[in-house]
TrEMBL record:
A single GO molecular function term of this UniProt record: monooxygenase activity
Keyword Oxidoreductase: yes
Name of the protein in its database record: Alkanesulfonate monooxygenase SsuD/methylene tetrahydromethanopterin reductase-like flavin-dependent oxidoreductase (Luciferase family)
UniProt domain Luciferase-like: residue ranges: 20-228
Domain of life, per lineage: Bacteria
Annotated organism of origin: Thermocatellispora tengchongensis
Length: 298
């Protein structure tokens, strides 16, 4: 574990509450120069708009920022159709789409929406199969066939082909799921709410072990981090991890990049969203970029 040397990126975790000015916040993130907008996917949440519809609208009203589900509720999103949706949005947006996948959570709510309740082992097997199905559907090939326990393709034709490769990021935390992410995913997408700094060494070690066992270089796996907290007034006191002034955030994110190999930070802020976004983009991001660049040069 340490600095993997990957280029840094920064994003915004947009909660899709139906009553919020969602497109205005997305435009602000784009205008502020952030790289990514992630939207959580909870179709059963009555207060939320649909994630894929929102991602499409965001792509339509922005010009540069990339969008992704953070992360898809796979039990409610059939992977072949999900792959088609992602490829279509990528084509229409000029390649500004990535794909975050989750094995499933909140099983009672999933069942209420017609999805299947899965055991942890079934959910992991379905996630593994979904990766295969999605990549086949992005291949541009005809007569696609796959026979799994949870998903199948029976002579399907793929298309459209994404104009640039779409990265698959797994939001997982269990030992076997981390091994799967290391072996097959383009990135790992945990959140600071459960992947705390105390847990990161163990989680990252399992991720890297999975990559090595699959013959991959661990540096080829992007390490994203949804950072939940509040950026307070400059010069103020700290109230704990990711809860303090911009200089504290710069310290902590720099340490996460250089000490833990995390390369992409997605802000999931508490409080006034516009104020938090501006502080992050204007006071935290440039400082982290500068500090990491200096350390790497030295």
């Amino acid at each position: 574990m340490g600095d993997y040397g990957r280029a840094l990126e920064f994003g915004y975790f947009l909660v899709p509450a139906a009553g919020d000015p969602l497109l205005e916040r997305a435009r602000l993130a784009d205008d502020l120069g952030l790289d990514l907008i992630g939207v959580q996917d909870h179709p059963y949440q009555r207060r939320y708009v649909d994630t894929w519809t929102l991602l499409t609208m965001i792509a339509a009203v922005t010009g540069r920022i990339r969008v992704f589900p953070d992360v898809v509720s796979l039990p409610l999103r059939p992977p072949a159709v999900l792959a088609k949706s992602a490829a279509s949005l990528s084509l229409l947006s000029g390649g500004r789409v990535e794909l975050g996948l989750g094995a499933g959570a909140f099983w009672e709510a999933i069942e209420a929406y017609g999805g299947a309740r899965r055991t942890p082992a079934q959910a992991l097997a379905a996630l593994d199969e979904a990766i295969t199905v999605i990549r086949k559907v992005w291949s541009g090939e005809r007569n696609l066939r796959f026979e799994g326990e949870h998903y199948r393709l029976a002579g399907a034709h793929s298309g459209p082909v994404p104009p640039r490769p779409i990265e698959l990021w797994l939001g997982v935390g269990g030992p076997r799921a981390l091994a799967l992410a290391g072996a097959r995913a383009d990135g790992w997408l945990p959140s600071s709410t459960w992947a705390t700094p105390e847990r990161l060494p163990e989680l990252i070690a399992r991720l890297d072990e999975g990559a090595v066992a699959a013959g991959r270089d661990p540096r080829d796996v992007r390490r994203l981090y949804n950072v939940n907290g509040a950026i307070t007034e400059p010069g103020g006191p700290s109230a704990g991890f990711l809860n303090g002034p911009p200089e504290q955030w710069a310290d902590e994110l720099t340490d996460l990049a250089l000490g833990y190999g995390l390369d992409t930070f997605v802000l999931w802020p508490e409080g006034d969203q516009e104020r938090q976004l501006r502080r992050f983009a204007e006071e935290v991001v440039p400082e982290v970029r500068e500090r990491v660049a200096k350390e790497r040069e030295g």
